[in-house]
TrEMBL record:
Keywords: Signal. This is Secreted protein. The lineage of its organism: Bacteria, Pseudomonadati, Pseudomonadota, Gammaproteobacteria, Alteromonadales. The keyword Signal applies. Residues 1-22 form the signal peptide. It comes from the Bacteria. The keyword Signal applies.
C-alpha cells in the first residue's frame, strides 16, 4: 500500500512540475486559428510601410502555414525569390513566443536570426503582441541594428485575413494576407526540409 501511495505522489509531483503551455485561453485560441490554416499558403499586400520596406515592393508576398504541432507553428514568409524568412510561434510556460528564423540560400543561419519576443499579455483570440526580448536586443546591438531594439511585432487573424505588423519609433510595417484565397504552395524555405 505504501508503494502505491509513493507512486501516486510521484505521479502528482511529475504532473504539477510539467510546464503549462500558452497560459491563457486567448493565446491558445489565437494559436489554433493559425494552425487551422496548416498546409495552405496565402498572398499578402503591404498596407503600411516606408522607404525601409522597399525590398517588399513589386514582389509576391506569400505566407505558408507549413509546419504545425501542438506547441509550435512554422510559417515561412516568402518575398519574391527570397525564401529566407520563417516565423516560428511557440507555446511556452510564459505565453506565446515569436521568433524570426532567417537563413541564407545555402541554409546556414543568418547572424541576425531567431529574434522576436514573448507575448506581453493574454491578448485575444484575434490578436497578439510580441515586444522585443532581451536576446533580440543583444543580437541587434551586436549587429549594429540599434534602431530595432524597441521593436514590437503584432499578429492579427480573423476569418478572412492574417496580418503581420512591425512597429517601432518612426516605423510601421504591415502586410495583410487574404485567407479567403489560398494560392499555390511556394518552394521549401531555405534551411528547411
Amino acid at each position: 500500500m505504501k508503494t502505491l501511495y509513493s507512486q501516486a505522489a510521484l505521479l502528482v509531483t511529475a504532473l504539477v512540475s510539467l510546464p503549462a503551455m500558452a497560459v491563457t485561453a486567448e493565446q491558445n485560441a489565437f494559436f489554433d486559428r493559425i494552425a487551422a490554416q496548416c498546409g495552405k499558403a496565402f498572398e499578402g499586400t503591404v498596407t503600411a510601410g516606408n522607404t525601409a520596406d522597399s525590398a517588399f515592393s513589386g514582389k509576391a508576398l506569400i505566407m505558408h502555414v507549413r509546419e504545425c504541432s501542438d506547441t509550435e507553428l512554422k510559417v515561412p514568409f516568402h518575398v519574391g525569390d527570397d525564401h529566407s524568412r520563417t516565423w516560428v510561434i511557440t507555446k511556452t510556460p510564459y505565453g506565446l513566443h515569436l521568433a524570426h528564423d532567417h537563413r541564407h540560400q545555402d541554409g546556414s543561419k543568418d547572424k541576425v536570426t531567431m529574434y522576436g519576443g514573448m507575448t506581453a499579455n493574454m491578448g485575444t483570440a484575434e490578436q497578439q503582441l510580441f515586444p522585443v526580448d532581451a536576446y533580440s536586443i543583444n543580437n541587434f546591438r551586436d549587429n549594429g541594428l540599434d534602431v530595432s531594439i524597441t521593436n514590437v511585432w503584432h499578429m492579427y487573424i480573423n476569418q478572412t485575413e492574417f496580418t503581420y505588423r512591425l512597429t517601432r519609433d518612426e516605423r510601421d510595417f504591415r502586410v495583410d494576407f487574404d485567407l479567403t484565397k489560398p494560392v499555390t504552395l511556394p518552394p521549401v524555405p531555405w534551411g528547411h526540409k
